[in-house]
Amino acid sequence: MKKLLFRWAIGDVNTSTRQLYSNDGFSSFLRMAKTSILSFQRHFPRARFFVFYNGDNYDYFSESFNRASPALIKDVTILDIDQFGNPYHFNPKDSSVRVWYKWVPFRYDKTATEIHVDTDIICINKPDTLIDHMKQFDITVMSDRMAYFCEEVCGDMWQTPILKGRIPINSGLLALKPKVSFEDEYLEAAKKVLYTGDGHSVFLDEQGCINIGLYQSDKTFALLQRDVNIYGHEFKHRILSGGQVVETCHFIGYTKSLFNQIEPMIYRRIMDENYTVSDFYADVICNRDERVSRFAGFLQEPGPSWNQPQPQLMPPQASGHTSTAHNSYGSSLGSADSAIPF
Fold it and tell me: Taking the model in full, what pTM does it have?
C-alpha cells in the first residue's frame, strides 16, 4: 500500500454561501478543485488521491467530475460520504453545515500519511516546506491569515479558553503521519456547537473545533512557512516584490475570482517546466491574457499578514468510483515523491 494519501471534500453546495451551486458556479468550482488536485499530482506522482463526495446524485457527480477540465494525470478515487456514517450530533446533509463533511472520515487510512486539502489550495511551485515537515513532524498545518483568534477564524468557538494566546490554525491543509489523529478531541469540541448564531459563524465553527481539538491533544505540530505558503490576497505582493517564490496559494473568499482570471496561467505553470516563475508573474502583471484584465483591482487590497513573527513548532498545551486520468504532458517538473522517505 502506498504511504501518501491526498484527499479533498467536494459537494454540490457552496460551503461559504450555504446554497446549491448554479450550473455555472458548479462548473467553475470543479475546475478549481481539479486544478488543486492536479497541482499536487504533479509533485507527488506516487501518492494516492481521493475525493469524498457529500452531495446528492453520486453517479451524476462522478461523470461530471471526469468530464470537467482540467484533465488529471493520475486516477482519483471518488467515495460517497454516506458510507461512512455521521459522527456528529447534527446532520451535515443540511446545506448550511456541509463544511463539516471535510472531516468524515477523520482518517481514511491510518497506515498512510494523510493530507486533507481544501479545493482552493493550489501548488504554484514544488511544496518543499510541506515535504520537509511531513518527514519530521506528526502533524503539519498552516497558520490562519488572521494573527489572532476572532469570529473570522473560529466562529462562535473563538473565545474557548484553550485558544487564548495561541496561534490560529487554518483548516485548509492538514497532514497527519501514520497512526496520528486528534479525532476524539475534535469530535468532543464539536459537541459544543449550537446553531443559534448567524450563518457566518456556522461556516467557521468547524475550523474552530479543529483548533480546539488540535490544542487539546497531546500531539506536537509544525506550521508551514508562511512567507511561501500564502493566501490569495497576498499573491500580488509576490509579484510587486520581484516574484518571490510561492509554494502554495490558498484562494479563499473573494480571491477565488483572482484564480478564475489567471486560471490558464496557473495551469501552464503546473504543467509546463519551461514556463518559469518569472514568466508566470510577468504574464499576470502585464495582463497578457484578456481574462486577467481586472487583476489591477487586487493591487489595492490590504497588505500581507505573513510578515508577523510566528514559531515553526507548536508543542501540545468502502467502495467508490475511480476517475480516469489523461496525461497529455510528459513528467517534466521535478517530482517531490523521491524526497519523501515513506
Answer: 0.84
What's the number of domains the chain is made of? 2
Q: Are residues 156 and 192 in the same domain?
A: yes
Segment holding 132, helix H or strand E = helix 128-136
| Maximum separation of any 2 CA atoms in the chain, in Å | 53
The helix or strand, by DSSP H or E, that contains position 8, with its residue range, turns out to be strand 4-10
Residues with Cβ within 8 Å of residue 224, at least 6 apart in sequence:
129, 130, 133, 140, 141, 142, 143, 173, 248
pLDDT in tens, 202-251: 668 899 999 999 999 988 999 999 989 999 988 877 776 666 789 999 99
Contact present, 217 and 186 (Cβ < 8 Å)? no
Q: Which domain holds residue 90?
A: 4-227
R_g of the chain computed on alpha carbons: 19
Q: List the CATH number of the domain containing 127.
A: 3.90.550
201 and 247 belong to one structural domain: no
Peptide bond into 127 cis (omega under 30): no
